[in-house]
Amino acid sequence: IHHDFPRDVSRLIMPPAPGMIIIAGLYLVGLLILGTNIYLFLAGFLMGYLFYTYIHYKTHTTPVPPYLKAQYRHHALHHYKYPEKAFGVSSMFWDWVFGTMPPKKATK
User: Is the Cα torsion angle 16, 57, 85, 46 positive or negative in sign?
Assistant: First the structure.
């Protein structure tokens, strides 16, 4: 739904109910694999998710500072031209790693 309405602030992050189900699943699987170390993993995961959510919200709701224009343009390509590419909101790094960078001509 977010991709259909990228400027709708009520659809920028995952609703709490599905998010809690996903976290519960991660917790149970992680507990089996990591034991009590799952708490460290979940703390890091949640901190990363909160950072991502903050950046994603700001990207969609505030004027873009000059130093973030390239990153904003990258994410806009994901919404408006290449939905199967340019997933990175807070960084382009993983798009580069996973081969999901948009064509170079699109970024200019």
Answer: negative
Cβ(54)–Cβ(62) below 8 Å: no
**Tens digit of each residue's pLDDT (9 = 90 or more) over 52-93:** 888 878 777 888 888 888 888 888 888 888 889 988 877 889
Cα-to-chain-centroid distance, residue 51:
9
- Work out the pLDDT band at 51, boundaries 50, 70, 90: confident
Name the residue with tokens 């999901």: 100
In the 3-class helix/strand/coil scheme, how is the chain assigned residue by residue?
Answer: CCCCCCCCHHHCCCCHHHHHHHHHHHHHHHHHHHHHHHHHHHHHHHHHHHHHHHHHHHHHHCCCCHHHHHHHHHHHHHHHCCCCCCCCCCCCHHHHHHCCCCCHHHHC
**Token pair 């799952």 in the structure block, residue:** 38
- Supply the pTM of this predicted model: 0.61
